[in-house]
Design a protein that fits this description.
Elements: H1 2-28, H2 32-55, E1 65-69, E2 75-76, E3 95-99
Antiparallel strand pairs: 1-2, 1-3
Helix pairs in contact: 1-2
Length: about 110
């Protein structure tokens, strides 16, 4: 699980330091859309870090299905109770479903069409 730990550290750096820094810079030069995009990216990286932290305990990791927003990359374990992506606001139909069955086939199955 050492490899996952390295990924988690990278994700943590991105949401804790990198994206807030570039978001602040964008705001400072009047780039409000860029500021929002970087703030949204930080939220996405936080969700990735949380998921990696769960996966580091592989024997306890019981997630068989993941949903990925095709607009921003937000990763969620359930989308039943949302109407829009919590990161970018894309409609629920933009989420793509990944199951354990297609994990090694790189297929996207979209139940929300």
């Amino acid at each position: 699980m050492e490899a996952l730990s390295g990924f988690r550290k990278s994700e943590n750096f991105e949401f804790e330091r990198l994206y807030p820094m570039v978001s602040d810079y964008a705001a400072g030069i009047g780039g409000m859309l860029a500021k929002q995009a970087f703030a949204d990216a930080a939220k996405m990286e936080r969700s990735h870090a949380e998921l990696i932290a769960k996966a580091e305990k592989l024997e306890e990791f019981s997630v068989d299905m993941l949903y990925v927003c095709s607009v921003c990359g937000c990763v969620m374990t359930a989308v039943d109770e949302i109407d829009r992506c919590p990161v970018c606001g894309a409609p629920k139909r933009q989420f793509r479903e990944f199951t354990g069955k297609n994990r090694n086939k790189n297929k996207i199955k979209n139940k929300n069409k």
